Give the backbone structure.
Amino acid sequence: QVQLVESGGGLVQLGGSLRLSCAASGSLFSLYAMTWYRQAPGKERELVARITESGNSIYADSVKGRFTISRDNAKNTAYLQMNNLKPEDTAVYYCFVRWVHDYWGQGTQVTVSS
């Protein structure tokens, strides 16, 4: 069982920055990839970024060069640094782990005003 708790969302102006955190329970954090998804109103959930257990990362084209995913295995936490935010980044952001089963956090709202 893996429990995921996101934090760090909020309201920010166009061009601003936020850092999201995803804290995971358990002792196996370093063994699995961490993924951030987001879901905007009326849209399907989409992958934003993923970091593997070895630290390799991938990004959605829409966030490349603006978002950075990282992890701190000592703290069982993954991060999503979001810079130069745009209104189209407005969504609920979720972290996700697949480790035998699929685990989702409760989500954190990010709202970017223009």
Notes: The radius of gyration is 13 Å. The CA atoms of residues 2 and 11 lie 28 Å apart. The chain has a mean pLDDT of 96. The chain has no helices and eleven strands.
